[in-house]
Amino acid sequence: xxxxxxxxxxxxxxxxxxxxxxxxxxxxxxxxxxxxxxxxxxxxxxxxxxxxxxxxxxxxxxxxxxxxxxxxxxxxxxxxxxxxxxxxxxxxxxxxxxxxxxxxxxxxxxxxxxxxxxxxxxxxxxxxxxxxxxxxxxxxxxxxxxxxxxxxxxxxxxxxxxxxxxxxxxxxxxxxxxxxxxxxxxxxxxxxxxxxxxxxxxxxxxxxxxxxxxxxxxxxxxxxxxxxxxxxxxxxxxxxxxxxxxxxxxxxxxxxxxxxxxxxxxxxxxxxxxxxxxxxxxxxxxxxxxxxxxxxxxxxxxxxxxxxxxxxxxxxxxxxxxxxxxxxxxxxxxxxxxxxxxxxxxxxxxxxxxxxxxxxxxxxxxxxxxxxxxxxxxxxxxxxxxxxxxxxxxxxxxxxxxxxxxxxxxxxxxxxxxxxxxxxxxxxxxxxxxxxxxxxxxxxxxxxxxxxxxxxxxxxxxxxxxxxxxxxxxxxxxxxxxxxxxxxxxxxxxxx
Amino acid sequence: xxxxxxxxxxxxxxxxxxxxxxxxxxxxxxxxxxxxxxxxxxxxxxxxxxxxxxxxxxxxxxxxxxxxxxxxxxxxxxxxxxxxxxxxxxxxxxxxxxxxxxxxxxxxxxxxxxxxxxxxxxxxxxxxxxxxxxxxxxxxxxxxxxxxxxxxxxxxxxxxxxxxxxxxxxxxxxxxxxxxxxxxxxxxxxxxxxxxxxxxxxxxxxxxxxxxxxxxxxxxxxxxxxxxxxxxxxxxxxxxxxxxxxxxxxxxxxxxxxxxxxxxxxxxxxxxxxxxxxxxxxxxxxxxxxxxxxxxxxxxx
Lengths: 496, 301
Hints:
The complex is a heterodimer of chains A (496) and B (301). Chain A has 496 residues and is an alpha/beta fold. Chain A is 30% helix and 19% strand. Chain B contains seven helices and eleven strands. At the A-B interface, helix 1, helix 5 and helix 8 of A face helix 1, helix 2, helix 3, helix 4 and helix 6 of B.
């Protein structure tokens, strides 16, 4: 069977297994929500794990949209009306920030490459200015990075004041378009700025481009990691025209960074997207809690939120991962709502682990013992079988050269001289004696020799006679050592 | 092709024991926090080392326990396997963790991460035997084992939790079974891939190793046969076999057998003919000491 086909078949089988399990597990980080009858609904839009490791707290921040029937943020919500569970264990809220109570942190990354010159640049400038108008002076924070082949931080992420707003507006109006398109580096820089600022409140990064960056795909993984670490969703916007290859990369980047991809064919649409995103973030509730499992174990964690609203109970869910490929020995007993750790469960868990280990070890050891037993039985059964009748009855002794042998044997002309024995192991396993290149002596014919029979002169051999090592004579009557094992069953001299 | 089912079974079970032992080791000894990236990867490194040592030693034990039945070969196999498993486990799991983190978690990315780990650990037997082709087979088998074991680990942990077990126990059970499966698949698939893809081998038809096969690696300059424990095919407890009895070397697309200090006979028709150097043809029987073996190639068997 073709090697390639075998290898391909094995890989396909393994991938099928993985795919089936992936489907069965149904693990998805997509948000699910259950609206109320009047249209009120709650949705978890983003899970910020950037503070998870802080002081071993396991802090998680949920960004949620909780809207009433009119689509406005629900009023009158307090910590007591919002309940969070993670993997079925209730997690008391530390803080619930309502819309507008926390600063919105926004960075705009704007493409000013050569293709943006003219009306497109003017539209982009107007759209960015419109986004600034959605922010609140004295509360929110704004940063702007312009890029083409290089990048320029035209306004670092800082508090929005009258002066900084004016400065930012002037910088935006003075932008010029030239150069190529390098999207990755300014995006990474923007995420760095979020990390350096270390501010509270929801974060929003919007990357706008009208072109294609061949190097972006190579940086997506780094951007995703940084986005996850900083707790910043990334929104990507294709402006002007939608290039298929660029769209695929921008979509992938946005989805992996828990943002969204948009296409804005006109300046008005771009402005609408900027405004709506800022408004949406501004309408978000932030619920902060400590995970019942502060040890990062790498497995999915399902978060469920229920909201006691006037319209009834609203629910939303989403899952997230945090932690390594495989967990070690950290104790993963849950932290209960009252702050205690379920040690009783932990002791029971340890006992179950021991039982599990012993059971599996016994199972495996039993299998090995069974295989060894069957192997031994097979050997013993094979050893008690009597040798079948030999079909060859040639005499043991070598015939004289040129002499015709009895009917059961035949003479074979001497083979041509063979070269000296050579081997890559010569230095390590050097044969004794001096190799000879003389014509070989006549062929010696014999029946299948059960050990410890000693053959006559070797055929075609160049090997010089070596001193006997086993105490068996090379010619003449064979000596049978007392420890010689019984001969193997005759195979009738069958040709293989 | 000839698939040695018993050997596969044994290798799989030994690998499973190794994986289970690895799980026990990490449960007992890995308590590092993960609050920084450095600590996280340090923990991953330690985890990879421990699992790699256990898996490598277990896979390396098969030769000494079941094949050659030699305590020295057992210790040698376990030692080399553990050493290679240590290095392979460390590098493999860290690399896998990087990929897992970049992908943001998930069953598929975990499977990919474990497959890299398994692939590196699976090279142990081939490196220990100095057989490049077996090393490649081992890497491939380990890769597949990691794919299957890694995906099963996450699925099982989540499924057990859904069935009502506490997260603590579900993770432990998932880890134990997942690592056991990883080891089983590495052990089994290393052997299976070797059996499926090898081009030539000796199948012993009588003697101490009756029923067993020995793969011949065309990329290995010489495969030694003898009573020496350093020999590639070590045949112990046969007084007719000397320390450096014979060797099989790749030649002209096939293999040739060379008699060194001992005698080698080839069956030709009804006769057994001693040879010093002989080009083997598929199906040909050879006799070394009290053992007989048939030379097989993949094209004909």
